[in-house]
Amino acid sequence: MAFKRKIITRVECPRCKAQAELRTDDADRKMFAVYLKCPKCRYSKLVGISSWEIYRNNILVSKLSLLAGKTDDTMLKASLEAKIEKLKEINNKKELGL
To answer: Whole-model pTM above 0.90?
Structure first.
């Protein structure tokens, strides 16, 4: 099966301070490896291994935290914070393999 490659975000290279990329390489649909690659100095390093579910949950957590920061309603804010905590617990369990 062919690898799928995506660029997650652009960051600063630790070696040459140029613009580097966080890329994903995955052979299956569940897990992926994250690499830091710099096209200027050819720096390449494995940053970590994660799953797409954890990645999607982290995006959802960031969106919910922005929404919780904007709202003035205390009930809505409390429910959003409860959802954020639940998603963080799920992510921690998935990272540990439980």
So the answer is: no
- SS3 assignment, position 30: coil
Q: Domains of the chain: which residue ranges?
A: 4-51, 53-96
CA distance 25 to 3: 6
CA atoms within 13 A on the CB side of 97: 1
pLDDT digits (tens, 9 = 90+) for 79-92: 999 999 999 999 88
pLDDT tier at 22 (50, 70, 90 boundaries)? confident
Q: How far is the C-alpha of 61 from the C-alpha of 58, rounded, in Å?
A: 5
Nearest 5°: phi and psi at 66? -65, -40
Q: Decide if 16 contacts 40 (C-beta within 8 A).
A: yes
